Amino acid sequence: MFPAIPDEQFQRGDVPMTKQEIRVFVMAHAMIKPTDIVWDVGAGTGSLSIESALRAVQGHVYAMDGDAGACELVRLNAAHFNVSNISVLQNKAPMAMEGLPDPDVVFVGGSGGNLAAILSESARRLRPNGRLIVTAVLVETLYETLQFADGLEGFQVESCGLQVTRIQPIAKRHMFRALNSVYIVICRKGECV
Amino acid sequence: MFPAIPDEQFQRGDVPMTKQEIRVFVMAHAMIKPTDIVWDVGAGTGSLSIESALRAVQGHVYAMDGDAGACELVRLNAAHFNVSNISVLQNKAPMAMEGLPDPDVVFVGGSGGNLAAILSESARRLRPNGRLIVTAVLVETLYETLQFADGLEGFQVESCGLQVTRIQPIAKRHMFRALNSVYIVICRKGECV
Amino acid sequence: MFPAIPDEQFQRGDVPMTKQEIRVFVMAHAMIKPTDIVWDVGAGTGSLSIESALRAVQGHVYAMDGDAGACELVRLNAAHFNVSNISVLQNKAPMAMEGLPDPDVVFVGGSGGNLAAILSESARRLRPNGRLIVTAVLVETLYETLQFADGLEGFQVESCGLQVTRIQPIAKRHMFRALNSVYIVICRKGECV
Amino acid sequence: MFPAIPDEQFQRGDVPMTKQEIRVFVMAHAMIKPTDIVWDVGAGTGSLSIESALRAVQGHVYAMDGDAGACELVRLNAAHFNVSNISVLQNKAPMAMEGLPDPDVVFVGGSGGNLAAILSESARRLRPNGRLIVTAVLVETLYETLQFADGLEGFQVESCGLQVTRIQPIAKRHMFRALNSVYIVICRKGECV
After folding, report:
1. pLDDT of A193 strictly over 50
2. Which of A81, B148, C60, D165 has its CA 20 to 30 A from that of C168?
3. How far is the C-alpha of D107 from the C-alpha of D129, rounded, in Å?
4. Does ipTM surpass 0.90 in this model?
5. DSSP E strand boundaries for C90-145
6. Given an 8 Å threshold on Cβ–Cβ distance, is D192 in contact with C1?
7. Any chain D CB within 8 A of the CB of C172?
8. Could you tell me whether strands A173-178 and A131-136 are parallel, antiparallel, or unpaired per DSSP bridges?
9. pTM for the full model?
10. Which residues of chain A are within 8 Å of residue D140 when distances are taken between CB atoms?
């Protein structure tokens, strides 16, 4: 009944997580179809992987993260949400991408220092009408992704920052509580229909 | 191929319009099904009405606005997007709501000074599992909607502000361009499933 | 050498604190002169009281807070910054204001439920050309202060929200880290010169 | 009686202008003393030059802009505010800096493509305890300035983004109106006192 899973339903550890309001926006742009192949690079807690697996019910999600703790969290969350169409790959991208089926959707939430290679390999492998979506929480990720996107041919690119302020009830009153800004760069392969 | 229609595809006049990034978020929360009945109160340019009509293909959208120019814009945009499941009611809410079928989704984007009556009538008429979504661009609308929502029984309420910064390409560089803040209050009827 | 004291130089406990970037903005608007009388209502950690005392070197600062822990923190911070021109009043405003000399500047950062009375008493007692500055972190405080300010005669009012994003260095990169939004309402007594 | 000059008091043309709320923050960080030498690189309308000239009454402000229209606006605004301690240099930085006295404060609001050279020459020429303040409205300016600042020795650096939402009165109500985000990087020469 929700457009995205509430944050507190995920196991989180101290791994960074894409917050619910951002996931609503990112998932709306991902437009995942039931048969889609999804790559989640720098999967973290796996929140985008889980959201994707719940939509790509006949497809498959490949969650990649170089960190063992993150991979364990993705597995825990997959079990908790009872999704079996996720494979967790404990390996850094772009190496982890080798041998995987080409994706309809790629999320890049972390790069482990290989951002340029991850972006170009993702764009190259992306299927027609595929979507590459980068969520940037670092100035450097935003800058490098925009540089990369400017050089892409055959893609449509748009980008924005989202500053979400949650309204938190507190003793019958309502407090402004900011989430950290996230910049989102969306690259769509092929012409607009 | 887009999660929401680009702003420039709408006829706009000088009527305020819910911007694309906000519509992505609002429509994701509306979760409109093909058979849904949608009320759009203070329809403005009709951008949410059009988005809704494209999703509720076997349902119907009732766009209400007290302003003749706004109603004309909604009709122009409905014709442009070739949707026929929209009725435009040039009448102020809540009067305009009389005689309409009960809604699955109500959007409130403008109130013409009748916010309290609009909200309570919307909540009363809303079908089980219905969603009432208020987009507030005034301090007063945010305050009054939160007051109202606190008194609701049998609803789940959440609320946040969205500050969108578009990244605008400009001579091979990228400029931060803010949209106005919008606060969004979402009231879901019935228990969470 | 700083326009405002860095946050980490204050003793904080778990009392909320006006962050440095907000203090820079608030203190610039307060325009405190060496002989000014300053009231700090809902003083919290006393960060604005300390900043004020360092500027009103021949004046005096009255820090009011109903909470004993907050008052203790103000005293600790006054000692730490070696300012003696602060009186800490553990009493709720507006009662705490009785008997004090009329202020040139009033800060309202917390109201303990007495906002309307605090604002009207502050406006009444304010000296010619005095400044009343409210920092609102609740929707209700923002709404009620704007309502109050609209009814003021002989004042100039302006208001804005500040969403600060700190750029935090992290492993040779730079992360966007949001502070909570604060709305600031500034009421200046008398005509603009 | 204001901490910064209201926007509407400046002649603006269609040259971009540092808005009042941002000037309040920037000028607070600049901490200009009466005898200071100020360089304003990419002066635009000259709003920061005028604010500086009003504070550096025994000092001098050098406003540099490669654009003839901008230079004309700075001259108009200097005449309007009756300040004579401004020299307008229609020349691009860093060339325009040659032969000028070393600055206490440098503002960089535009770079004409020479950002790296402007920053390094500014840092080199800055007097002890001097302040170099960059206002970035482009992703590239933010990124390049942070890269530059990371390599500086003998400076203290801090940085933040400011998203200002003006509260605009409109028919007895109050509308949220966003200004564009500006990122501000402040480099202080020498140790903190």
Report:
1. no
2. D165
3. 15
4. yes
5. 105-108, 131-136
6. yes
7. yes
8. unpaired
9. 0.95
10. 143
